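Reply to dn_fold:

You asked what the input looked like. This is it:
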Amino acid sequence: MSRALLRSFLSAVIFLAAITSCVVLSLADDKAADQYNVSGSVLSVVSKHGYFYQVSTDSRIYFLMCTKMRPLGLGAQECKIGDNPITVGDTVRFRVDGDWAYIPTSAEGSEEKLRILTTELKVIPPIPPASSLANPSSANAPSGKGKGAGPRPEPAIVIGTGMEVKGQHGVGWSTAPNAVASPVSTASAATPVIATAPVTAVPVTGGAPVVVMPTGPTTGGVVTGVPVTGGAPITAIPTAPVMGTPVGGTHPAGGGMIMLGGGGAPQWVHVLRIQTAGKIYQVECSGKHCMVDNKEIGLGDTLALRVDKKNAYLSGDPANSGADQKFKILSVTEVGSAPASEQH
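and this is what came back:
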């Protein structure tokens, strides 16, 4: 490449970067401080193949991906709160707009933009009984096929929403819901939990008991958390059993789902995590939000679900299970067990 062409290329990149910066600032200028109405604690930070943050609010767990890139696309940058990189234990205030979360920075009117990879319920509502279906003894045929009876529909609840790069099946879910046992369990070696309330514990270095808010899952033997009175995180031994929401492992280490291949931008698609009385299904929608009965499917929605081979059919109201929408099943998990192999 000649020097003249190189100069032109660099000038174009700088110009585009300047335009991008202006757009971000103009968007943020319209947002009042009170619009950052979501607040949560950072449970974990993954820094392989990008920067990813698991954030726990009162009722939900978010998995966020920082979209900042170094100049000329030379790797990812970490997102910040104010002037400091986001770390475990930080309290994050952000606003949600579609598939994105926005965090205010120290620069007036500017924001960090993070893609919302997954959003999950921390506590799963009771699954409605089969009797809630309009015709629990019958099943709906796939829309437009009219082949008569098929698999029996089941009541189901949307327990997670997310996005992945099409074909990579890279969504990771942090929770391991169980419809039979209570969603709030006692921590043990076999059942690590995210504490739902502050924990009184004695620092491992000695001293008086301290009340801490755990910054990550615990098995109950020791807990790492931030003292409610402030200060750096400490490791301490709880003085009583730790109660919380069961978790199942961590998100995929490294966020390999966003690595580009073959040039060009990745094609993002929306996915749902849906729980019935006995199974958890991950289904794929499209680049648009998942829809049923001409309405966007949201976290906590109750649906009627039936399965036919590798497809799931959803209707929006279990009490009036009429026409249904077809979705591709990516994986199936027995409630309370490890994820099953993905279907292809």
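The chain has a mean pLDDT of 73.
Hope that clears it up.
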